[in-house]
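Check this:
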Amino acid sequence: MRPTLHARRPFLRPRSAAATAFTLLIGAALVSPLGRTADEADPRSVKWVCANAPERVALLFDSLNLDRPALAKVKQAVLANDYPSACNALIHYYRTAPTAKWLRHIRVEATDKRSPRADAILADDFEFIGERATVPRAPGGGLDWSFAGPNGTPEWNWAFHCMDFLEPLMGSYFNTGRPEYAERIDRDIRDWILANPRPSHATCTGGWKGLETAMRVRSWLPVFYGMQMADEFSPATRILMLSSVLEHAQYLMLFHRRDANNWAVSEVSSLGAIGCAWPEFRDAGGWRAYSQEKIGWLVDELVYPDGAEAELTASYHRIAADRLDDYVDTFRRFGYPVADSIGVDVKRMWTYLAYTMRPDGTSPQTNDSDRGDNRERLLAAAKAYNRPDWSYIATNGREGNTPRIGPTVTFPWAGHTVMRSGWDANAQWSFFDAGPFGVAHQHHDKLHISIDAFGRPLLVD
């Protein structure tokens, strides 16, 4: 039985009256009564942030562990109530810190190359869930973050708030050196933070829906460290982003799903990722500990001994496997231990995906699944876990080693049996479902059978 966290929850402590008063005092000190300087009028500057978001800045510094030796200059400026200098010292720290070396990019020179995808984003043209639309502008000039696509689809808006367009936009910047791509990253992050304040309660709509909160902060992580040497990544955005990362952690800590499903896996794993990637926060250790305990419980609840995820839905099994795999990799890359049992269960999940795979590399359409192609991701997992049998299955025998089991395999906990004539692309393959209903995304399809042969489907669910 895992220990409870009741004895170690300082990261959930309420703010005291003294701390609140201290924050308000700092906020007052950040705004000069002598009027706005030129720097204060520049929304890219530290002084602008200090003048226009004083409480946000105060909460950021109040939440950092300023006793870390590397933050000594930051602490000195905070003690002197010089918050613009504290911001600049914090920015310098992140520019030069050894954290996340594998995510950092060197400076690039501008070229005449362009990226069609990045140019579309410059024109406010976005595509989510297969639907393309031009996002209108809000009255203040920023993007209208409430826009729900050409058909008013909630899923379109939720995908918009995940901001997964930032990383390919960053890739376009480093491939071309065009400053306008980096400037667009800077503006969109700053715009989102200022237009979407963190709610004080859980919400199922908009940008702070739990799953979107988790996915957005994962999109931000490589961008924050990848853009550290880019001059277009403005001081204001760096400080606002750190303050919003704190808000994301607090929201995920308080309002993550309490039941066992892939949504909860995404939320809790992102909380752990924040604790790993930004250890300068005083509560980072608590976020990591709580996250790992919850992930351990979720794995126990969701992963059967035969490796099948309890939703028994191949598409969501893949999502959960990806999230858990990324969780283990994030902890290890940042130098934090992760329970061995979590890694073992993730390997079981990839084994299930490998041995149920159709000859064409797609997954069986169990419950609420589409016919997704898993070959590329399985090959990456085979390399990471040293499983040449997975490579053999994914490549129809061109790479890797012949599996020691199969080709017919039964997963008794899932109630799934895969019968096949071999591992080649033209093999005869069938899938039979005699298992339980699944914990979510269920269809009433028990006893269904699917058959593929000679490179094409013959009987489908």
Notes: Strands lie at 125-128, 131-134, 409-411, 416-420, 429-433, 449-453, 456-459. The first strand starts at residue 125 and ends at 128.
